[in-house]
Amino acid sequence: MRTLAAPLAYLFFMVPLPLAIYLTISADMQLLASKLGITLISFFQVPASLDGNIINLGTAKLEVAEACNGLRYLFPLLSFACLISMLVEDQFWKKALIVLSSAPIAIVLNAFRIATIAVLLDRFNIDTVTGPAHAFEGFTIFFLCIVLLFLEVWFLLGVGGRRGRFLIFDLVTFDRTTVERLMSWPISSASLAAGAILLIGTTVVATFPGRTEAVPQRLPLALFPMEFKGWRGIPQPLDNGSLNVLGLTDYLLADYTNPSGREVPLNFYIAYYASQRSGVHAHSPQLCIPGGGWNILGQSILTFDSTNGGAITANRVVIEKQGVKQIVYYWFEERGRHIAEEGALKYYALRDALVDNRTDGALIRIVATVSRGDEGAADAAAEKLIIDVSGILHTFVPGRTQDDSEFSSPRVTKSPARN
């Protein structure tokens, strides 16, 4: 174990970050990449302004999406820097500097990539926002990250009284004695048999046809009522760009008002996914809210009575932008469960995919604009819509096929809870 301590510790980089931590880092990294990108763009005398994570050029708008937050550079480069530090025979502070420097290298070059996209689009009308050119640009910038890391190692090895060693050259150079010793390494018949069994078994499992995913029947959201229980709605379309990014199966976007109340306008959104495999899933508002330039003033979790006898747990987020305040309620409707915490969302997604062969689900979001500082009116309208819509939601977003109440929460009254 002492001999293998370093490579075993290196396996830590195989483990993905917990979703709650990743979402927090991702949102901050998107905003940081946007701000650094707009700064670098200004060096090229390109007129641009920043609104959240949207870069407004004279002729186009660029969104610094979740995939461009820099984490795709930072995580592998940090892993690579740790590997390099293990192969450097020198003082500890040099090893630590190699690892720590990977973060600014990845962040700055990711911002440089964003600036390059903007400059190419504005000056030369070359679109590298999507497609093979975008991917090639990404690989090129990451290659530059690695080059900078190696240049740093070369520089640090010459610092100080005693020159260090980079053991990578020992690993790629074999003398004749070493090659002969490796070729004559004794291998038992039991090892050969175990390896053959593992290889054949893996091949069989990999070629075995997978199960067809179960997708329950439902009504399309185009049939969602625009008038029910006093509510009157006006449907709104999503643009093609948003539809391509979201990758959803079906959606509803409508503005509702209830004349029987205080007529607070509500924006109601349902994003339904028949399958949430291969990276396709509902986009968390925790990423979209800061990306749109909104500041989160407060967040809590509330529970509401459902008309079908259960309860709905939802996030309540107060946001503000340029003097406009809104209250956002959202939760994930996942196969009969009403999930507010995104850590639980991942657990049940894995559990239901393995046990029930289902990954369908939806994001439910309600946005109420606060008028004249009256948060109470906005809360009351949003809460009424949550309760009223709970009785018909299962028709358009399927619950448990056999018994929807099996996974319903116990009936409770509304109460605030710490997130």
Describe this protein's structure.
By secondary structure, this protein is of the alpha+beta class. The protein has two domains: 5-172, no CATH class; 221-407, no CATH class. It has 13 helices and 14 strands. The protein has helices at residues 5-10, 19-43, 71-86, 92-124, 131-157, 168-172, 176-183, 189-207, 240-246, 285-291, 342-355, 375-389, 393-396, and strands spanning 48-51, 54-57, 61-63, 88-89, 165-166, 227-228, 231-235, 250-257, 266-273, 295-305, 311-321, 324-334, 337-339, 361-369. The strands form three sheets. Strands 6, 7, 8, 9, 10, 11, 12, 13 and 14 form a nine-stranded antiparallel β-sheet that branches. A three-stranded antiparallel β-sheet has the order 1-2-3, covered by helices on one side. A two-stranded antiparallel sheet has the order 4-5. Helix 3 packs antiparallel against helix 4 (92-124), helix 3 runs parallel beside helix 5 and helix 4 (92-124) packs antiparallel against helix 5. The longest helix is centred in the first third of the chain and has 33 residues, at 92-124. It is globular and about 90 Å long. The model is unreliable at 402-419 (pLDDT under 50).
